[in-house]
């Protein structure tokens, strides 16, 4: 064994979840060497496997880089060490060499025990307080926080691919394509929503204004009214268009009922914003019965929390919009706490934002008419997402109809 | 008036159909000069307008080029001249300076009378036989044919934009966007199909295999069975996938009914091709009851003509496929004769081909999930098309359902 | 003349800028009637035209709606009236029936004189202070502000299409397509940038992180260094990626120089954010020589103002990022004051935001690899934009090279 | 061991090429059981691995389906059997249960020896003649041909992922994205072309008309002239546009040199077609010096074979176009014989066609501005392709320039 070698071990569904493949890949990508010291492949499909490898680098730095990388794939050092901590010198500033998180389930070896990191998200640091470890974003780092540095004492468990039970994720595999039987996918998604809810799961919708333009507002409203949705994350545009549609019957100046052009269509958009400012807030519009249907209305009526994050392109924005994006991120995270399923509809901005806040174990469904949008979201780290390339205005009504059938 | 000037006149809905705008544009694009000698704008919206202009070029060649261009926009020379003819010297060869057609309604001044050119298509030549004039593609030019050269004696009438009655074209305007209320567009398209048929119109579908993959096969089959469709233009892929779905229940190896993976999915594709070859043809498969449902089946059963054009990427192709594309073009044209409405679904290749064969007066609806595909078709000359950016597997079932309601 | 009629007049390049066509269209869309009382078409191409129309509605409300609409297209009432004003009752609240602006040059009839509205943007209200009128967004409305209501006393001048001189806008027309000779478009864009600057014009870049990923960072840096750029509007991502590339040589974990994979690529992203927080700001990083090249560096060094607007998906975001989007909008507007040309590169979010703040007379060039993105921006109201569908990483270096040639 | 069990074995880079993962996947997808009897993982990265599994199905049919599937992934039955043959009963008709090929390297056990199947393509059958085996498409099957049926005696070797040496495939991984450093990818592609040629490799271009529209014609012409290209596969459109550009200087009616609009642009397209018909063929145009530059010219001059496949949307098509697609497929295959690298540029139709004819071991590079197009090609079975999402008009000149540098 070379001076610059180290033994690591890894266990789990090494073969069928491709874990071993990825570890071999990473070592070779970084031009390291490896030796398989021991391997024990489960003989049956549900059996766990175990492997022990010696990894060798050209020098200590090289070896360290390889180790860092394979640790992210689930490998652990044969000899466990305690995590190392360093204090933050200044608000918002992490120590050099801070441990940057993945969105996988992560444990840290603290005072001789493995403890799970809470509130797992990707690209954050880990702060240790007493016997607990938390995943914390830069803007929440306070001077003096104890932050994990280096890679010692950290164990990652990549999610295993779903194998049991039939759900839309298993059915579709990981690819996104527009060439799938739409009606059947809609059924599968309906099943998944229905079953998740039946088991007491939490479902959050992330949505863009195309929900309204394409005529899917009623379907989403119904899902909320029927109790399937536990939170709505959006921006100013969804709210404005939803309220314009609910109060004036138009979206982008088109009468949605009979599909004729409204007099002065775009004006309605500005009138809507003014109406909410006059009322003071969306909830007050509902209270004063100026707003009596739609997505925002159902949220207020059914106590479903919604968060509207501001963006630079907003008209207005509405008084309910959180114009400070750092604060909006905090509110998004609150709503996403312990979520089981997230449905992202036609909004790249809010979908990527939400994806960044989710542990990899949360089910994510993305519906968009543009394949590159769907692909981009997955490339940004939310690789567990199921992409559905379809027309929201046709797809969501199908899903809503299917759920209705199941609810009877 | 300069030596290099000529007077032209133009009439029709000059303002609201933008004809005058386009003529002014073209003259300026080519850096010519113009003088408006007389203009008479209809005072009411249905009135026709009239304008007389003097156009001036830098030299005779320049003037001629400008004139050629404005003639295409509907202008005519003040002084009408007879068309000029020249014989084809060789099969497939047109005389230099042959008149290259647009897809607009075209008349030629022959023996002192204006006669309409039959079988109008774009980018072809005009052959005169006796007192008739025909639009003829290169491959049908025979040695000795009398072909129109130059621009004299030709009058074009651009189609006026639809103003009366409500149909989907009026509703949507000319733009294609995915941000429209899908369910309402589906209703409008259903109305248009229903009304066109009620008036005895002829409707042809041009379709690609995504009809089957996305699960819209049943909807199209139903439209054919119910008598709404008078012809199907496609390629090998639609037929193979349709027959695979009808006989084996799969498309691209997925069981469409319960959405599970077929054993050995892709194999089914090749088995289907072999099955048709064994039967000898699609019609024989129907006759021997080996094929009992689907698009191809309904075509055979209901005597709806279909033409399958071969392409270089075909597997097989099926015995029914016309592998010679020049012959396939001739068969397409036969089916398109006197058509009133063409619905193009998820196939750029066959849609552009069909677009090239249609006079601009035919209503064209294009449904595709990709906006660039829809845009490209229009850029290729089929500018009158109405583009719908949606998911075929969700949109066509909506249309079929709406038509069913109307038929009751 | 009916009880519900009114005479309007309009002048300018009525035909070649399609103004008359649009007015006729709008009247017919709204099912009104019109009579052309007088029309005087300029006989030469540079001549202005004049038209006087009587418009008739079914009732006063109908007529008013039609009038509102045609006023937006440049028509004015034959009889001019003073504007009407009403006070804002509350901060952020406009009076009902407030006049909602277009992005066209707008004049208001105030105390018997036409005065131009300053700081023109679309979808805002107009506040009158003394003898001046200002275009003001909702969030800047203060209680007691005098706001224009109704449509009386307002005159709009739609921009005329460019006719003189050769620039890329004239060359390309209004369409966006990927099927254009890329190298020649790059030359035209270079000409336009060079000439705009030579005449003392102001040029602002709006950019997304794809500038860095695709390897165009050096080209943009050079444009700034050479003095062509007067402002950079972006978000957190462009800055982070630019600084990561400048300090660590990677973008998305790929070594840009030799195109190999960095050890621990994504980590670099977080390290970059931490480094800026440690320095305190981008300018301080430049001052302490920790940042010595790239887009942000050149901005600081050359005193080119940059504004980084926060968004919900930001990692960090950097201390320089304005996390309050309402404030970020104000800063964007400052940089955009009196701008002549805006170049938008691979960012829909910031491009739409910027487009909303620009009068229609500003030249806008949009470069993106996705055609739907380009189309969407124009649909959102920035119709004057020139869309170029190309690969930023290949296109911008071409433009930079061409400008360099001209600068010698 | 159950009645419905069978032992299989597999060897090669089982882990790093994911072969074992895929086999486990397939068994589980089909709901079979497996037991790992023996596994020997190479301890070093270049070592081969070996595994022996018992697979169990619910019944013989189930087991057979699972076996069929895993055989495709490289597994072989522990006990080798001779292939089974059956005669074709009729031209174009294969026996039921014919073995349908993959595009992987395939061997058959014939008279006690493993022999390689020649001319490997996907979705075809295998015909045995004497001691040789050939991959044969449906249309080439003759009555009496000995065709392999069932799955016995067939061994597939999936290509291993490239590990050694630096080339663009290794660099990019398998994903296609527009967010890559374009200039570096261009360098890598140039390296690959240059090195392939240096080693005496054969390179074929498959191209669409966007090569000409986007201004990349000169770059492709230069590659041919410099001897890098051994064949050009295209359709009518590329040839017509190339010759229009070469003879009239326009493409789609735009003067490519100075980017102004040609008088009567689209007319040039038809004139070009007529000119080739007058000459009789492209080669005769070159001979008579009517065609003196461009892609087609360089092919003729340098004896580089080109095949133009007809399609239903062709204008003309040119006399050189093979209008029978079955014959065109044969000619394509001839040019593709023993090819090492195929560069597909902006044509989905011809690229998918070519992909279907290639063994998986051929390097394929696809360049297109549309990501869905690139993805679709890979989904259709040409999974080994490297997708580059870029603007052809900017990318190809970069590649050509880089190759020029290397050639000096």
Automatic annotation (TrEMBL), chains A, B, C, D:
<comment type="similarity">
    <text>Belongs to the AgrE/ArgZ ornithine cyclodeaminase family.</text>
</comment>
<dbReference type="InterPro" id="IPR048963">
    <property type="entry name" value="ArgZ/ArgE-like_C_2nd"/>
</dbReference>
<feature type="domain" description="Arginine dihydrolase ArgZ/ArgE-like C-terminal first subdomain">
    <location>
        <begin position="105"/>
        <end position="185"/>
    </location>
</feature>
<feature type="domain" description="Arginine dihydrolase ArgZ/ArgE-like C-terminal second subdomain">
    <location>
        <begin position="187"/>
        <end position="398"/>
    </location>
</feature>
<dbReference type="InterPro" id="IPR007545">
    <property type="entry name" value="LOR/SDH_bifunc_enz_cons_dom"/>
</dbReference>
<comment type="function">
    <text>Catalyzes the conversion of ornithine to proline, with the release of ammonia.</text>
</comment>
<dbReference type="Pfam" id="PF04455">
    <property type="entry name" value="Saccharop_dh_N"/>
</dbReference>
<dbReference type="GO" id="GO:0008473">
    <property type="term" value="F:ornithine cyclodeaminase activity"/>
</dbReference>
<keyword id="KW-0547">Nucleotide-binding</keyword>
<keyword id="KW-0456">Lyase</keyword>
<keyword id="KW-0520">NAD</keyword>
<dbReference type="InterPro" id="IPR048964">
    <property type="entry name" value="ArgZ/ArgE-like_C_1st"/>
</dbReference>
<feature type="domain" description="LOR/SDH bifunctional enzyme conserved">
    <location>
        <begin position="5"/>
        <end position="103"/>
    </location>
</feature>
<dbReference type="GO" id="GO:0000166">
    <property type="term" value="F:nucleotide binding"/>
</dbReference>
<dbReference type="InterPro" id="IPR005239">
    <property type="entry name" value="ArgZ/ArgE-like"/>
</dbReference>
<dbReference type="Pfam" id="PF21571">
    <property type="entry name" value="ArgZ-like_C_1st"/>
</dbReference>
<protein>
    <recommendedName>
        <fullName>Ornithine cyclodeaminase</fullName>
        <ecNumber>4.3.1.12</ecNumber>
    </recommendedName>
</protein>
<dbReference type="Pfam" id="PF21570">
    <property type="entry name" value="ArgZ-like_C_2nd"/>
</dbReference>
